[in-house]
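REQUEST ID: PR-0412
SUBMITTED BY: lab tech R.K.
PRIORITY: routine
TASK: structure prediction, single protein chain
INPUT:
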Amino acid sequence: MKSHGKNRIDNLQWAGAENYNFSPVLYGEDLAGNPDFYLNLILGLAAKYFGADTLERLFASWSGQMQREKYDLFALYLLEEAVYRREVDARPVLSDLRRDFAHRFLDDAHDLRRRTLALRVPLFYAMEMKRTHDILGRPYKKLNKKETAIYDVLRLPEDTTAENLKAHVLDLFARCLRYRERTRRLPPWLPAIHLFSIPGYISIERSNVPGMFHREGEGGDMPVVFNFLRRIKKDREEEIEKTFGRNLFSDEKSLALNRAICTEGHRKSRIYFTRGIDEKDKSQDQELNARTVRRHLMKFQETKNSYTRAISDLTRAFKLKLASVTTTGGETARRGKLISRRAFRAEISNRAAIFERKNLHPAPSFRVDLILDASASLLAMESTIAIEAYILSKSLENNGIQNRILCYQTVEDTTVITILKDYDDGADMKKIFRYKSMGWNRDGLFFKAYPVLLDGKGPQLSIVLTDANPCDFHPLMGKGLRLNKSYFEEPALDDTARYLDALARKNVKILALLNSDHVDNAEKLFHHRFVKIQKIEQIAHVAGKWIQKELVKMN
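STATUS: complete
OUTPUT:
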C-alpha cells in the first residue's frame, strides 16, 4: 500500500474510532485487493467500541495458527455485524454503505475471485453469500442444513464488551469452526505459503510488515497445506478451463509448450491457450459467458446506428486505400466502363455485357492481429473495447483482409491467451463479445508465447491495445541464488521489451495503441511505433489509419 493511500485509510479508521491516538494494525481489502472504504470504517468503529488494543490482542490470538487467514475473515465477519447494529442509528449512511458493499461483492466483475474464495474458505464464502443476499433482500437457498445452523448462531451477543470480546469470539470459533487454542503452530523458520494469489473477500494486513512475510506472533499468515497439493493444482486447472474454455492443445503439447516458454524469470508461471468458451459445452461457465456477451450487446444496442455508421466509414476507407495499392483485374458486366468494341458488335439490350468492372485483389497473405490487454485495469471500459474490436474486424472482413482477435490476462500463476476470433471465422459479434477483463497483465510472458500462434507465411501486422504498464502478483524469478524481482516497473518493462525486440527480429510488425499516460514506458517498449489514444472509442479509427499506411508499405 502506498504511503498516501495508507494515510487515507488510517484517517478513515481514526474517524470511525473518534480517536487519533492509535496506529491501525489491521486493514480491510475488497475482492480485488484494494483498500475498502466500508470495511476500514467498520474496523475504526470496532476500535471505538472495543478498543484498538483489544482488537490487536484478539487477532494476535491465532497469529501462529495454520488457519490464521480463516480466523481473520470470520473475526471481521463478526465485528462487521456487531458494530453495524450499534452504530447504524447514529450514522444512517452506514445502511447505504453496507448495501453498496454487498453489491460490489456480488458484482459480475468479481466472479473469478469469489470462486477462488470458495475454494480457499468454503464455509466463509457460504456465510458471506447468504449475508450479502440478506442485506439486499434477495433469496439465497444454497446453504445446506449444517451451514444454515451455523449462519443462525454466528453472531456476537448484544452484551459483548471489550472485556469479553475475545471470549465470545473464541467460543463461537470453537463451536462453529472447530477452533482449538492449542492447535499446532507453524515453525518460525517456515515462510508463509500462498496457495492462491487472489486475495479473496478480504485480506487483513498486519501493519509495517510486508504482506508476503507476516511474522507477528509465532507463525505465518496463510494456511499451509502440504497434503492434497496435487488435487488443489488439478482443481485450479479445472477452474481455468471452466472460466476461459478448453485448452487449444493436447495435454502433451501443452506441457511441452510450457516447458519451452515458461523458463528463466517465468519458470513458476504457466501459459494456457484457448478459443474461449463454446456455448454448446455445458461443462464450462456458460452463465458468466452469457452475462458478459449480454452486457456488451446492450451497450452496442444503445448507439447501434453510430456503430453501424463507423463500420461503413471504415470499410469505405479501407476500400479506397486498397484501390490505390492493389492489382486490378477486369470482367465484363452490365455496368461499369463501356467497352466500345463490344458495344459496336453486340446487339444492345438490357442484358448486354458491354461494360468492364474492375476487381480489387488485395494481397491474400496479408493478415492483421488485434491483441487486447484483458487485465482488470480495463474493466470500466470492457464493453467499449469489445465493440471497437468488432468494428475493426468487420471493416477488415468487408474488404477481404484476414484478421484475428486475441486477448490475454494473467490469473493466479497462469497467463491465459484467448482467440476470440480466428482468421477463417466471420466477424461474429457474440464470439468477439466474449471479451472479459480480469486478473493481471504479465506482458513479457504473452509476447514470449505469441510466436506459437504465428505461422510466418506472409506479412503480419499486430496491433496491441495496452496501458504499457506490465504488472503481475507473481515475481520475476531470479537466476540461481539471485533474489526475485517484483513484476512491476523496470523489471517488468525490461522483460517485456526483450520479447518485443525478439518479435521485431522475426519481422512481426507491432503497433501499439496506448490507453494510459505511461508514454515513457511505451517509448521503451515500442519505440516510435505507438500512438496515445485520448478515448477508448478511437481504437477502430486509429487502428484503421495505421493499417492503411501498412497496406501501402507492404504492397
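NOTES: The beta strands are 270-274, 327-333, 337-338, 355-361, 367-373, 402-411, 414-421, 460-466, 509-514, 530-532.
REVIEWED BY: pending
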